[in-house]
Amino acid sequence: MLALTRRLLLCALFRSVYAACPPSCECSEAAQTVKCVSKDLRAVPAGIPGYTRTLFITGNQISRIGPESFKGLDNVGILSLSNNRISEVDSHTFAGLSRLRSLDLSNNQLAVIHPDAFAVLNKSLRELNLSRALYNHTSVMDLATSLCQSSLGKLQVLDLSDNSLVYLPPRVFSHMGGLRRLQLSNNSLVALHNSTLSGLESLEELDLTLNALKTVPEEGLRELDSLPGSALLLGENPFMCTCGIESFAAWLNGSQDRVRDAESLSCAFPASLRNTSILSVGSLTLGCYQKDARAELALQTSYVFLGIVLGFIGLIFLFVLYLNRKGIKKRVYDMRDACREVWEGYHYRFEADSDPRLSQVSTSAEL
């Protein structure tokens, strides 16, 4: 009886420790959820119950996270750390979360991301949200290194929207063969090149809306064609419908089954074609090339004609010189004799001025 009582006390004590909840958090054992929301926390609170499968730590003042932040939380599958002003993610920060499937780091200020920051045991991570999370260009390069070195081969959803990205490093997604949805909307991307989308054989959706694409040249079209099984979103880009848009317009007309918003894509420039569907500008821009060809031919003809005229004038000039060769020769000789006389007079005067005796003779001669 005494032994049974001890066991019951030990179980009750263990249960009380196991179910303890940090004072700044709200815990639900039934839902296996812990919420630490807008509590002005400076670090991940200690004492989070081990039963936790869903952990929300949002709206706080946490500047750094590391592997010590999540010790003893092996059961966490969903982790939200959004809007915490996190600026640094240490190496192997999430390595101890062996069951982690969804990680939300959106609305932070990530400036330093260590190469092994997203290394997760058993490659369990499926969703990674980095929307409005990158602080500067350096963090973009750090992220590219981390994505290439971390074990994210089974990642299915990656959100990089709202990060003011101007370009993407080459082969940044090459180690994410399992990625199905890639969110790149509301950035400042101006082009797709350098094998940006290499390695995304399983991609099902690519969102490029609200970027700075003025056109998609041949290299960019090859990038998009390397994703034959993915649906594409290209709306709300400032497409410039001038010479050079023809290949994109032709590609778009042949890819309407893949580009979900193809019918809504329209010209932003020039003003005369604003809001004109890109699907219908092919014939207009083809005329642009014909006009340019005629102008180039006319310019080449003008250069040829100008060369002929200048050559003819040169021949006439040489012919006139030949006809007047004797007169020109006589004039040259006359100029030479005149210059010689002037030079001899100048030389004689110089000698007279330099010799005192000659100067006296010349003076007495004048008297």
Question: Can you characterise this structure?
Answer:
The chain is an alpha/beta fold and 367 residues long. The chain has 3 domains: 17-126 and 139-151, Ribonuclease Inhibitor (Leucine-rich repeat, LRR (right-handed beta-alpha superhelix), Alpha-Beta Horseshoe), CATH 3.80.10; 156-280, Ribonuclease Inhibitor (Leucine-rich repeat, LRR (right-handed beta-alpha superhelix)); 296-338. The chain is built from 7 helices and 15 strands. It has helices at residues 2-18, 137-149, 218-225, 246-253, 282-323, 325-354, 356-366, and strands at 26-28, 33-37, 54-58, 64-65, 78-80, 88-89, 102-104, 112-113, 127-129, 157-159, 181-183, 205-207, 231-233, 239-240, 267-269. The protein has a 10-stranded mixed β-sheet, with no helix packed on it. The protein has a 3-stranded parallel β-sheet with strand order 4-6-8. Strand 1 and strand 2 form a beta hairpin. Helix 6 (325-354) packs across helix 7. The relative contact order is 0.05.
Instruction: Please write the CATH class name of the largest domain.
Output: Alpha Beta
Low-confidence stretches: 8-18, 363-367
- What is the number of strand segments? 15
The CATH homology group name of the largest domain: Ribonuclease Inhibitor
Overall average residue pLDDT: 84
User: Termini separation (Å)?
Assistant: 162 Å
Content of β-strand: 5-15%
Task: Quote the CATH topology of the largest domain.
Answer: Leucine-rich repeat, LRR (right-handed beta-alpha superhelix)
Q: How do the SSEs run, as a string of H and E?
A: HEEEEEEEEEHEEEHEEHEHHH
* Rg measurement, Å: 41 Å
The level of helicity is 25-40%
Number of domains in the coordinates?
A: 3
Shape: elongated
The class by helix and strand makeup works out as alpha/beta
- The largest beta-sheet arranges its strands as 1-2-3-5-7-9-10-11-12-13
Total helical segments: 7
CATH architecture of the largest domain: Alpha-Beta Horseshoe
Largest sheet: 10 strands, mixed
